[in-house]
From TrEMBL, chain A:
Keywords: Membrane, Transmembrane, Transmembrane helix. It comes from the Bacteria. This is Uncharacterized protein. The chain crosses the membrane at residues 62-84. It comes from Micromonospora halotolerans.
Automatic annotation (TrEMBL), chain B:
Residues 22-78 form the RNA polymerase sigma-70 region domain. This is RNA polymerase sigma factor. Belongs to the sigma-70 factor family. ECF subfamily. It comes from the Bacteria.
Amino acid sequence: MTEEHLDRMVRDADPYRPDVIGRLEGAKQALLEEIMSEPTLDRVAEAPQPRSRARRGLVRRLAGPLTAAAALVGLIAVSTMFGAPPGDRQAAPGGTSAGPTAGPATSVVYSPVALKAAEQNPRLLIDEPGWRVITVYGFAEKQGTIAFGKGGRQFDMNWYPADQYDGYHADRRHVSAPEAVKVDGWDGDLFRYSSDDFAVMLRPRDGVFVELRAGGGNRTEFDRTLTHVVRVDVRTWLAALPPEIVTPARVEERATVVLADIPLPPDFDKAALAGLGTNDAYQFGAQVTSRIGCAWIAEWQRAKRAGDDAALRRAADALRSSHNWKVLHQMKDEGDWPEVFWETADKVVAGDVPRGYDQALGCG
Amino acid sequence: MSSGTEHEERFRRVYAADFGPLLAYALRRVAQPEDAADVVAETFLVAWRRRRDLPADGEARLWLYGVARRVLANHHRGGVRRQRLGERLRQRITAVIGGDPGSEVPERLAIRAALTRLGELDREVLLLTVWEGLEPREAAEVLRVSPAAVRTRLSRARARLRELVGDDLGRPGHVLDVVTAPAPKEGR
């Protein structure tokens, strides 16, 4: 038996099947998020990073180096426009709430898509003056984030599918012993990451569970804020989102603006953008340009394989033109998405599709 | 961009690039496929906590294999599945792979059974070479031994395996012992 023959037999005995990796259905990203949510010594050693939690969620769908992507505090100075919700519960106007777009929610007609998307999230608001919605994204799935800011404080609400509750809860029990609390009459467990960093996991409801988290304040402040967290109906919730937030009802209008100077890849389905759910402007821009970038790179690869020089040139020109896309320039100061996009696009144009580009741009 | 952010980004890049190879490594070395989720989760958790020590991109994989190897040692020693991280990954792996060695062909089982009878280091050298596709110098880095030792071990492992499977192919014997986890050894 030759060495080669022996090695081949060993190789044949390999229990690993490469197709496993393609069938994980997001478990890879879920694990990444779990790991990066783990508190480490850095949290203590470094200055508080109140954005860190919200940042995690972005990783879920746009897995590239987007760490600064959600660093929007103070950059999107939006006001939470609480109108006059039709429900019993009235979310209080933010301290800065004012402006021509603030009006009674009942006057707004929401599309069925918008209403359905809003139904699929927990619709929790902070019913206390001064809190502003600063980040929203991920509403198209049973996972998402809404972050509120007030002064230097931030309060995040992240939610996940209910079937992941046990796993998360088991993990959080390694953080601290759970302490029973109630939020708007709903049971939850409070975990303590440090003396000024707390999280509350609410029991699953309607197929999702919510984790509330706030850093930068003491326990008394956290408890007090919790007493103001309320669950509202769909219309109230949508009305509470400032006009900058791209709700499904606003997708078409915003997409038209974003796509105005972007060459569309072959077969690009603009209508599919309605499925992006509700996002702030930055997240929306990232989601849209992600789809476009991924499609152009795929087209570039196809053309290359096929030896279709004209198509190859078109794809390269489109990717190169990304340096002039208005939306990316608007996003530049708020996070690293444009940088990552341009870096990847430049490499592809230069003939080198970087390894892991699909992760970096969230293709998939 | 702060250095903390750079470390986070590097971690993400390493995770994106090396998750697959690490999962393969883990799946090849655990008795139950879903246990691989624990090994992968634990290994990347260590990498996350030590992200400042992560070697440069492209070199991280060997470092991760080294970490995974130690995680596996603890895993086998502990004999319990940790329920800390990667629950979803565990569920998916179970769903995708299942765990029925009965569906395997006898030759594979025979080879795997023979592999369990090699010395641990010999087996690791051979598997890192054939399954993970590492060069001797890379396997040496994972195992923290000299490249010369790896070459010697590799040659010995092949000779020993050849002896073990020799003419017995087709008569696998103890198929129930077909695990890729290290077999208990004397004096261990």
